[in-house]
Amino acid sequence: MFALSQNLTALDTLSMDNKPQSPLFILNWPALDKCILMLSLGILIQTAWLIWKLFIYLNPNLWVYVDTEYLKNFLLINSAMPPLLASVILLCWYLRKSKHAQLILPYVSIFTYGLTMIHEAFLVGLMSPASSITLVLSVMIGLLLFKRSLVYSTTTVIVFFFSIIMYATTKGILPYAPIFINTIDTSSGTATAFWVISMFCFGLPILIGGFILIEVLLSQWRQREKKIELLSQIDPLTGLYNRRTLYGFLLNLIGKKYSKPALHSLILLDLDFFKKINDSCGHVMGDKVLVEASRVLKSMVREKDIVGRFGGEEFIIILANTSYKQTSLVAERCRKELNNLVLHDDHQNKLVVTASFGVTHFDATTRDIDSILKEADQALYHAKDSGRNQVCHYWDYKEQNV
Questions:
Q1: Residue 186 confidence (pLDDT)
Q2: Is pLDDT above 50 for 370?
Q3: 307's torsion region: left (phi>0), alpha (psi -120 to 50) or beta?
Q4: DSSP 86
Q5: Which of 36, 163, 195, 334 has its CA 20 to 30 A from that of 123?
Q6: Residue 234 — φ and ψ, nearest 5°?
Q7: H-helix segments, 171-282
Q8: DSSP state string for 283-302
Q9: Of the candidates 159, 210, 217, which has an alpha carbon nearest to the alpha carbon of residue 42?
């Protein structure tokens, strides 16, 4: 019926569900748990690179494409990388409840992760596709998981090391991509193929792992943003639509053009003597009455109808394409059901809940919302002046006062 009505069930679920967020919701993880996730990705990458080096080392026919001395040395260094990352993971896990560790270890974790990536980037070339992919995806993942100040500060230090290595390379102090130093032969198609396949092997782990993690994080981010948007439309106590959202529904009805003239209705109701309940039984009991009244009202209307809390003990029901007779029946049914609501205070004294109802109708020719609310409000106060716990329609009130 309305643009937002399809979110009604979701709103109710979100507002009334007090269960904690799923442990799989990564964005809400503590910082050290996120560090463990990042370091685990680093172990996966380092393990994949270690497998590549072992494969080359165990196949002597491929030694013509690599510097075997560098290969052996880097094989030993690479073997130490997964245990190094694992030790930081254990440290994060062991100290996860320490406040000081929560401040310091994220820097240590990201910096350690970055150093292991620098080592492999130097090995295959700082400007190689594998190094570029690793750097970009690592920064993206870091920005999604951690505070920007943490990521930018550690990235600045890592880029500083990158710059030193690049400077040393340009000055001939360090070789560029030393593991491929013997394969720089542009006339050799086989050597080029070996380099391309090597880049593929080095870039694939971070490409697959990074994109999967980024997709999960972005999906959860969108889910959280949607939840925040939905929660902004409801009253946190009752789970009903709030005043701002109700205005949006009314504006939508006023501005919507129908093929046939459509008559809409608005029911404004106010719980009788609600202040006495708060004063005598306390605000906790008052909140309980509001929640139970909300539940009753929702159960008495159609799924497409709109029920909202207008403020305090006032509620609004919006019915589209509903006649005078139908609206009066709905209002009377709500009144009776509220009157039959059985509640007890802390001393097991029965609380009687009644409400007064003001009803009005409007159509697309209505110019503003204030006039609709004013009519319903006048009918509501006439119901209260007439003894409360009854339904008054504005048209009837207007005829009596002509």
A1: 52
A2: yes
A3: beta
A4: H
A5: 36
A6: -120, 160
A7: 189-231, 243-255, 274-281
A8: HHHHHHHHHHHHHHHHHHS-
A9: 210
